[in-house]
Design a protein that fits this description.
The complex is a heterodimer of chains A (112) and B (117). Chain A is mainly beta and 112 residues long. Chain A is 0% helix and 50% strand. By secondary structure, chain B is an all-beta fold. The chains are: A mainly beta (112), B mainly beta (117). The interface between A and B is medium-sized, with 21 and 22 residues.
């Protein structure tokens, strides 16, 4: 079945540091890939997505590229801010199903 | 943009009480909505898929008689936790995907924190 593996963290960075959160997946066919962000006490917000190989999703300075050859969708940001502190979830949907399969989440803390 | 409203955001009640949580899509129609449960510091676990006008599809291990789902219209799904007990305390999140629009992601509500005393 479909699955998502992401680095578990927690990740602690200083403001303006470079961020990478690794995400790899296992899926049949050609899944769509997502990054969701969850701020404390809130639901999930879609951060970015990619629906086919080599697509790059980007939003708010975050980027992730759909790499079919490595089955990866790593999240990156060149310069993090304190306001980026949150839990980040990598997810996929596919195989004819609308269901989302989530990774375990990575908690990011950015210190001033 | 698409918005999903979830209500209430926080519930505290006594053991044995039934609790209803509403999930509304505010500016789109959703034939399908999803209900998730999230334990502290853990990922989201899909509980069930709510289908407008038909029975919900429950994931393995989820008690359908415990977690009643009703999807009465294209913009509203409800989850009722029947005879709730402390072990049902959790963060419940719904999501909805716009119907009839390709490549649209799921949009999530802000969640309901349920605490059973």
């Amino acid at each position: 079945g479909n699955s998502v593996t992401q680095m578990e963290g927690p990740v602690t960075l200083s403001e303006e540091a470079f961020l990478t959160i690794n995400c790899t997946y296992t899926a049949t066919g050609y899944p769509s890939l997502f990054w969701y962000v969850q701020y404390p006490g809130e639901g999930l917000q879609l951060l970015l997505k990619a629906t086919k190989a080599d697509d790059k999703g980007s939003n708010k300075g975050f980027e992730a590229t759909y790499r079919k050859e490595t089955t990866s969708f790593h999240l990156e940001k060149g310069s993090v801010q304190v306001s980026d502190s949150a839990v980040y979830f990598c997810a996929l949907s596919g195989g004819g199903s609308e269901k989302l399969v989530f990774g375990k989440g990575t908690k990011l803390t950015v210190n001033p | 943009g698409a918005v999903v409203s979830q209500h209430p955001s926080w519930v505290i009640c006594k053991s044995g009480t039934s609790v209803k949580i509403e999930c509304r899509s505010l500016d789109f129609q959703a034939t399908t909505m999803f209900w998730y449960r999230q334990f502290p510091k853990q990922s989201l676990m899909l509980m069930a898929t709510s289908n407008e006008g038909s029975k919900a599809t429950y994931e393995q291990g989820v008690e359908k008689d415990k977690f009643l789902i009703n999807h009465a219209s294209l913009t509203l799904s409800t989850l009722t936790v029947t005879s709730a007990h402390p072990e049902d305390s959790s963060f419940y999140i719904c999501s909805a995907r716009p119907t009839g629009v390709s490549n649209q992601p799921q949009h999530f509500g802000d969640g309901t924190r349920l605490s059973i005393l």
